[in-house]
Amino acid sequence: MISVGDKLTPLSLTNLDGETVQVPDPTRRVHLQFRRHAGCPICNTHLRSVTQRLDEITAAGVREVVFFHSTAELLREYQEELPYDVIPDPDREFYRQFGVEKSWKAIATPKVLASVVKGFAQQSGKGTIGTATESHLGLPADFLIDTDGTVLAAKYGEHGADQWSVDELLALTG
């Protein structure tokens, strides 16, 4: 697991557009988000709130980088229009590196079920529960990384809808 105060080894990632993404970013803090799978209605509802407030996040000096344990092909069906870096990680390499786990608790709470219903409604029923290589049991995680690679804040979700809100992220950047 990654803890506050840890210093990350620099990462060179490839986003959905085939571009290289460096973490840490030498000019901005990075909000690393570990979401679930490409069609996850919970994740897509959450990311919609991030997209709506991206100007505020950017003004706070933060770059959004979002991992999914899906292939690039599957992500293009759901995430291609996101205005930040989306990182496909179908083999969960970075999930393991950051200690982001799977658990039945990801879906077994009333809050998660309400989030799923809301997400499916917002996606006009387009969401999925995962494919053979994806898992609906994935837990979310959030990390705020400083320009030198120091972990400023970390949150390991206890269920599928347990991630930082935009307000929580902005409070951490203050």
Would you give an account of this structure?
With 174 residues, the protein is an alpha/beta fold. Helices cover 29% and strands 21% of the residues. Strand 6 and strand 7 form a beta hairpin. Helix 1 crosses helix 5. The two termini are 25 Å apart. About 13% of the residues have low confidence.
Write the layout of secondary structure elements.
Blueprint: E1 11-14, E2 20-23, E3 29-34, H1 41-52, H2 54-59, E4 62-68, H3 72-78, E5 85-88, H4 93-97, H5 110-122, E6 141-145, E7 151-156, H6 166-173
Parallel strand pairs: 3-4, 4-5
Antiparallel strand pairs: 1-2, 3-6, 6-7
Helix pairs in contact: 1-5
> SSE order, as H and E?
EEEHHEHEHHEEH
**Number of helical elements:** 6
- Main sheet properties: 5 strands, mixed
Distance, first to last CA: 25 Å
CATH class category: Alpha Beta
Number of strands: 7
Explain briefly what this protein structure is.
The chain has 174 residues and is of the alpha/beta class. The chain has helices at 41-52, 54-59, 72-78, 93-97, 110-122, 166-173; strands spanning 11-14, 20-23, 29-34, 62-68, 85-88, 141-145, 151-156.
